Amino acid sequence: MSIKQNGGVFGRNPTFNDVTIEGQLTFDGDIDIDSDLKVDGDLDVSGNGKFGTIDVFSNGIKANSNAAIGFQLGDDSTGSTEIGKIVNSSGRFTIEPASTRKFAVRTNSPKVDSLVIDHNSNVEISTGNVVIATSGKGIDFSATAGTGTSEVLDDYEEGVWTPAPASGTLTINDATYTKVGRLVTAQADVTATATTSGDWSGLPFNLGGSLSADKQVGFVGYQSEESSAVWGVLADNTLATFTFRNGSTSKQLTTGSRAVFTIIYYTN
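RESULT FIELD:
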C-alpha cells in the first residue's frame, strides 16, 4: 500500500504489510515496533525518541541505566566484528575498545592534530602508557607563568650506566640514572678490584650547555680510601668523563676501596 501526500488512510486500527510513504510522516503519539526497523536512507530525529535502552534527543543520545552503545563492523549482530562500545556504568561513561582494537582521535589521518580532554577530575589510565611518538614533542607547561626559554617536558628516562676508570678494574655494586628533560642524575656504588686511575668515563649522556667544567660537579657520599677526607666529583663540560677530587687534587681508588657517589648535570 502507498500513502500519497494528498491522500489518507481511514478506518479503525488498520493493519498493513508493506507501507510506502511519499512525503513526511508525522506521529502525535508513540511508535511501538515489535520487530526490526530498517531505514535505507537517513533517520532524522528532530525531537525526542527511544530505542530500547537508548534515548534519542535532538542534541544527542543517552544510554539508560547500565546500557551500552556498541560499534561493530558488519551489517548484523551475528556476523559482525565488535570494535568497541560506550558504556554507562553507575553514571560514568567509558569508551571501551574491543580487545583487538585501538581507540584514536584523528582529524588528519594518520596524524592526530589535537585531543582535548575537559574533565573536573583526574584522567585515569588503567593499563598501558601515554606515548609521545614524535621527537621534540612533550607536555607543554606554557600555561604557567614564567620567563624560561622552554616549558615543554620532552623526555624522561631511567636506566643503568657503567662507570669505567681509564685504568684499573672494579666491581659495580649499583649504577643507575634518571633523566628528566636535560637534567641527568647518575649515581653509583663501586669497589676497586685493582687500583684505578683518577680519570673515569661512562656517564650515560655527554655533558652539555654553557657551564664551564668546574660547575658540572657531584659529590661522594661515602669512600673508604680516606676516612677523614671529603671527596667531590668534577665532570668534564663536553664529554661523559669525570674525576674524584679532594680540593684540586685528583683521587684514585686503591684495591679494595669503595666509593658511593652521585653526579647531577645537564646534557644537550
